[in-house]
Amino acid sequence: MSQSAIDLPSRLLLNLKPWRNAATWRIAFSGGLDSTVLLHLLAHPATTESLPALSAIHVHHGLQAVADAWPEHCRAVCAALGVPLQIVRVQVQPGASLERAARDARYHAFTEVTRPDDVLLTAQHRDDQAETLLFRLLRGAGVRGLSGMPRQRPLGKGHLLRPLLDVTRAELEAYASEHGLSWIEDPSNLDRQYSRNYLRHQVFPALTRRWPQAVATMARSAAHLTEAQGLLEELADMDLREASSVGEFAWLGLRSLELASLAQLSDARQRNALSHWLEPLTRLPDTDHWSGWEDLRDASGDACPVWRLADGELHRAGGRIWWLSGRWLRTLPVAGTWQDTRSPLVIPDNGMLSLTGQIPDGPLQIRYREGGEVMALPGRGHRDLKRLLNENAVPSFVRGRLPLLYKDGQLLAVANLNGLDGGAIGNWHLHWQPLNEDQGLS
């Protein structure tokens, strides 16, 4: 038995040492070589050492007829090792990249099953890391992409961990051979129309013939870039703290940043900070689409620019940039009549209203701004609602969502705006609690 194969179990347990207190170690088990070795490496110590509960999950994509036999193979392997197995069938959405669609479906399944204090273990190794680095380099990735696959990251309510990133494919093959393991050979792995397969079967053999240490040095480069990305994230945190002052309309519950703080940074630091801020909210734009940020930033003061991204929009208003997604971008249905004003009113797709103080007599109606509204104010006469909203510096994207309270066709109050919320004409106030992203908007 080779030294590398002897050393592999202890190396793996050393990599997993910080995670010994997890509730569960769940192995992403495709049935292929890599995950078969990972499962076998952990199944034996799980019977002799105090480790987290060990289980496996197999995601069945149903993309090939031959794959229908794989769940049964995985079931047999897990039964022989005494490891519980969960089989999840997923529907892969059609798209330009079948590889990406299958990966998205697989990781969605992983996210769904990962509970608090669970760790999902995947079997990517050092050769995979080198392939990822080269693949992303050819696509023009930046530091974040070229840092490769992270050793760990949040997943669902738990974490994803890749404990074999310092292990080579050759070491895994040697271990499998020496222990007589059997595994699934996915025929699609030989199809060189897929970019990763082309790199694996055509490019890397040529590279390693010329530079035998290519895989190791590329993985080392990915580690250096991971460190660089960490520094960029620290810088982004510093810049975002400066731009994260609480604004006048914080009650909207929306994510926003102070534009002036960002604008004084260099262009590169602006992109770095915004990328860090946007990363959990949307798929990030590629290099060509960052001109949308410059257009939003540099628009004239009276403009209401919008930068449309994959999963939402950035708006500029009141000296701030605002992230809008979900129901904030949908057309509102008609609000209607408020029958029992003593109880809060849930407004379709727009949060909740309540009245405090000496509640005015009904019947009352809730409407939204259409243009041309006029409001009577004590001591000021009749005023155009548009001018009143301008005086209060209400962001443009809020104006069509602000609930307006009417009685007998007369505009009585505009929710949440001091002096317009009912207090000026009576001893009562109209309160609006908008929906926010924590309530399902993102």
From TrEMBL:
Pfam families: ATP_bind_3 (PF01171), TilS (PF09179), TilS_C (PF11734). Keywords: ATP-binding, Cytoplasm, Ligase, Nucleotide-binding, tRNA processing. Its EC number is 6.3.4.19. SMART domains: TilS_C. GO terms for molecular function: ATP binding; tRNA(Ile)-lysidine synthase activity. CDD domains: TilS_N. It is an enzyme of class 6 (ligase). One of its GO terms (biological process) is tRNA modification. ATP binds at S30, G31, G32, L33, D34, S35. Residues 364-432 form the Lysidine-tRNA(Ile) synthetase C-terminal domain. Its main location: cytoplasm. Signal peptide: none annotated. It catalyses: cytidine(34) in tRNA(Ile2) + L-lysine + ATP = lysidine(34) in tRNA(Ile2) + AMP + diphosphate + H(+). It is found in: Cytoplasm. The N-terminal region contains the highly conserved SGGXDS motif, predicted to be a P-loop motif involved in ATP binding. Belongs to the tRNA(Ile)-lysidine synthase family. This is tRNA(Ile)-lysidine synthase. It comes from Pseudomonas laurylsulfatiphila. The gene is tilS.
